[in-house]
Design goal:
heterodimer; A: about 210 residues; mainly alpha; B: about 350 residues; alpha+beta; 8-stranded antiparallel β-sheet; two-stranded antiparallel ribbon; 10 strands; about 15% strand; globular
Chain lengths: ~210, ~350
């Protein structure tokens, strides 16, 4: 396979980017990958991200409403785009459709898997409601709330330390399968595991 | 009240803890917001005041923060604001617009909470050496207690909601301050930084965003806060830091093996200059202190403690000098005061 960028060297790096449910595959050589890496290293703020790079999101917004305003604090989506900060916690609901792909873009993931407030009541989205929490001991591994189908998530985010390249192959296959099946959320999760595992292997080799 | 801080050594400067030769300090930061109020930048003065009061009340009753120092940013002088910044207790942002902002500083400066910064609460825990886990435990416990009285904004799918979507989820930023002189001297550092950046880490200088890595000090922190649990985030960054420590150790060994005289020369010259200066800028200080610190780590300067060196990095900053002197000093006066403090602290070998 030849590098997509320079069209000279053998492509050894294979990138799969999932942006707003659009899959871009890129096969590049090591040299071009390094170049791409250093380009990405340059600092850019969230406002730039929103204005320039989030074009696919923009198309969705034209329909779903660039004029949308948060009823709670009055911030318009356009203003958020300009300053890169939301107005209040309720903005997340008001701009939900536009923020979902943005979060995915920033974090390569769309679902919180960390700490849950002790007094969080999954029945209502407003925290602070006293209820009997299932995770009173501060169990951080579970997120109560709307049950999400976790199809084929046999390999949850935590990758055991001793996994070898066989697992890596398996994960890569699972990634391909997920992409082919257009299960992008799943694909993004597997991709992160692949990255983690590769980093760990690299560490082991170093 | 600042005098109390000036007299004590911050816990994170003690020079103890795992890998304290290469890792200066570990820091955990949690971003939290109160659901009823708009984020600080978007809130009205009235809302900011109310939010500040709600957080203040919660802190006053928190057992984990008993005896802590609650400082209203509007009540203190510019010099004291700078002083808190130099001690890594507040951000630049907190100095620029002090109205309705505050910081709570716990015993030995282990924990601090900025109120009404970009987020309503920025909980920070600092530890000496490579010790993110301990820092996380303290922050987790503190956050648990505060969440009993404060309604933190939380979404079932997206976790803790923050003003900037780059912090949404755990709101956790884990940072490690590393001293990497050998990687810099052997010119491997840019390659290393490039690799780390690709692994989702951010690299900054001693005083955070936009500052240079003066004194060969690098702050490395995670970028992603969504889709990873707190412990996964810590494990990820710990794995990378462990590798970095290994690289720096190797580079030091190599330097000594191949260029012993050159390394010793740099260390002793740096020490000699610091020991014998009567005027010295903060930039030159931090550069030379880096060499002295390496000398301490390598056992070359075995009569100096790591804590002395770590403290000097902070004590020689402008606001600290002026606080030690008890009055405002012009630049030239500061350079003289700095030199005098260094001479008195960097004792001669017996």
């Amino acid at each position: 396979m030849i590098c997509d960028v320079c069209a000279k060297q053998k492509a050894t790096v294979h990138l799969t980017e999932i942006i707003n449910d659009q899959v871009t595959k890129l096969n590049i050589c090591e040299y071009c990958a390094k170049k791409k890496g250093s380009q990405m290293e340059q600092h850019f703020g969230i406002a730039d991200l929103l204005q320039g790079l989030a074009d696919p999101t923009e198309k969705g917004l034209a329909v779903s409403g660039a004029k949308v305003k948060c009823v709670s604090c009055g911030m318009a989506y356009d203003e958020f785009k300009k300053i890169g900060r939301l107005g209040c916690a309720q903005c997340y609901d008001a701009f939900r459709e536009s923020i979902a792909p943005l979060l995915k873009r920033i974090h390569s993931a769309g679902t919180h898997t960390g700490k849950v407030p002790r007094n969080f009541d999954p029945a209502s989205s407003a925290p602070g409601a006293p209820s009997a929490p299932s995770s009173a001991s501060g169990d951080v591994s579970k997120v109560p709330g709307p049950a999400k189908p976790k199809s084929g998530s046999a390999a949850e985010p935590s990758v055991p330390a001793a996994k070898g390249s066989a697992d890596l192959q398996q994960l890569k296959q699972a990634l391909k399968k997920a992409i082919d099946g257009e299960a992008y959320e799943e694909a993004a999760r597997i991709r992160d595991q692949v990255r983690q595992l590769e980093a760990k292997n690299k560490k082991g080799a170093a | 009240m600042m005098d109390a801080l000036l007299k004590q050594t911050s816990e994170w400067l003690k020079g103890t803890g795992p890998n304290a030769d290469i890792v200066m300090s570990s820091r955990i930061r949690l971003a939290r917001n109160l659901r009823p109020y708009p984020f600080s930048h978007w809130a009205s003065k009235k809302q900011e005041r109310e939010c500040l009061k709600a957080v203040h009340d919660a802190i006053l009753t928190a057992k984990n923060l008993k005896g802590s120092l609650f400082i209203f940013m509007n009540d203190i002088s510019d010099l004291d604001k700078q002083f808190l910044l130099e001690r890594h207790l507040i951000s630049r942002e907190h100095i620029l617009h002090p109205e309705f902002k505050a910081v709570d500083v716990s015993d030995r400066e282990i924990a601090s909470i900025m109120v009404n910064e970009e987020d309503h609460l920025r909980i920070q825990v600092m530890q000496s050496g490579f010790n993110l886990q301990e820092g996380w435990k303290i922050a987790d416990r503190l956050e648990d207690e505060l969440s009993e009285t404060l309604p933190f904004a939380y979404d079932a799918k997206w976790g803790y909601l923050t003003a900037c979507p780059t912090n949404t989820g755990t709101g956790l930023r884990a940072s490690v301050m590393l001293h990497l002189p050998a990687l810099v001297m052997t010119k491997q550092i840019s390659r290393v930084i490039q690799a780390i950046t690709k692994l989702g880490m951010v690299v900054r200088g001693l005083y955070g965003e936009g500052t240079d890595a003066e004194g060969n000090l690098f702050q490395i922190s995670n970028q992603i806060t969504l889709g990873q649990s707190e412990l996964e985030t810590l494990e990820h960054i710990e794995g990378i830091i462990r590798q970095l420590i290994g690289h720096e150790e190797n580079a030091r060994k190599q330097l000594i093996k191949q260029n012993r005289d050159l390394v010793y020369d740099k260390i002793w010259r740096a020490y000699g200059t610091l020991q014998n200066s009567y005027i010295i800028t903060s930039k030159e200080t931090i550069h030379l202190m880096s060499m002295v610190r390496m000398g301490v780590d390598l056992g070359v300067l075995d009569h100096i403690t790591r804590q002395t060196v770590n403290e000097l990095f902070i004590l020689t900053q402008p606001a600290h000098l002026q606080r030690l002197e008890g009055k405002l000093l012009a630049q030239s006066e500061r350079d003289a005061k700095r030199a005098s403090i260094i001479r008195s602290r960097l004792i001669k070998k017996a």
